Structures are given as structure tokens and as C-alpha cells.
Amino acid sequence: MAFHKPTNSNKVTCAYHTKGGQWQAGYHTGTDYAGDYGDPVYAVAGGTVIHANRMGGWGLAYGIHVIIESEGVVEGKLQTLYAHLAYVNLEVIGKGKVKAGDIIGYVGSTGTRSSGPHLHLEMRVAPFLYDNKTLNPESVIKLSPVGGIAKKPSQKPPVKKVGSVKK
Can you give the C-alpha Rg of the chain in angstroms? Predict the structure, then answer.
């Protein structure tokens, strides 16, 4: 499984962890990408669609949104939120599983905190709370090798000490 860019635009209009009182967590918990109303939104990684609607999910502030749960991207399960959509692609998400690059919805401006058409992309690791469980989508995507899956950077293996061995 490889990553796919979330929109045709690479223009970030609000970066992850931007400080501000307008957000419940005190900072921006995702990355916003510029887009025109109706532009396609692509699944960044393959996985299981666990939510696709306006109500429920992660709340009304996100408007119409899709949440996809993936495994093998980082340690533990990863949930990726695609928010403020105009509408979802029921033909794709109705199957319950998506592949990276599938069109899952279209850029919009729904939700109580959207100020214009854009995609809000947010990633959370189980147990899917704000507290140190959000990830910078740009960093996760950039960790992915071409044609591969991003893994949490591993620690260097311990250095073996070379010396005399007692028998």
C-alpha cells in the first residue's frame, strides 16, 4: 500500500499544530489544503471506512466527513479524517474498503468552523483523542517510501560491544 496525495492541490492553507484559540485543542489538529468547491478528495491510504456522514463521527464542526481506519501505517491503528466535504462518493465508500487514490469525496465548506472550500486532513492514533494522539499528516505522508507504507521511525539497534568472551 502506498500513499496518495489527498487533493490535486499541494497548497497548505493552515499547517498542522498552528496555535489558536479558535480550535478546541488550542492548536490546529490537521492540515488544510486549498481547493475549489467540488474538487476530488483522494484516500491517502487504503483502509476501512468507519464513518461517512455529517452527524456523529468526530463532530459537527467537521461537517460532512469521512473517517478511514488503516493498519500498518504507524504503530497501532490510524484513523484519517477528511472534513468539510461538499459530499461523499457513495459508490466508493459504500463498499466499506478503499485503496489509496480512490476518490472518497469532494471539497466543500460544510461544518460549523469552515470559512471556505478546503480539505481538512487529520490523523489520529488509537485511542483517537487529541492528547498527543494527533499526527502531522505531511510528516506521515513524507515518511512513506515510494510504493511503500510509512512506518514509525525505528530506533537504532543497540550497539554490540566487541570484546573478549569468557569461556
Answer: 18
34 in Cβ contact with 121 (< 8 Å): no
Short-list 2, 10, 91, 8, CA closest to 52: 91
Enclosing H/E stretch for 110 = none
User: What are the residue ranges of helices labelled H in the chain?
Assistant: 90-93, 137-143
Does residue 112 lie within any of the structural domains? yes
Nearest C-alpha neighbor of 32 from the set 3, 65, 10:
10
Tell me how far apart the alpha carbons of residues 111 and 114 are, in angstroms, rounded to a whole number.
Answer: 6
Q: Which residue has the higher pLDDT, 114 or 97?
A: 97
Range with the poorest average pLDDT among 35-44, 90-99, 123-132:
123-132
Task: Kindly state whether residue 148 falls inside one of the protein's structural domains.
Answer: no
Does 35 reside within a domain?
yes
pTM of the model: 0.78
Range of the domain at 89: 12-143
Determine the average pLDDT of the residues in 74-92.
88
Pairing of strands 118-125, 31-34: antiparallel
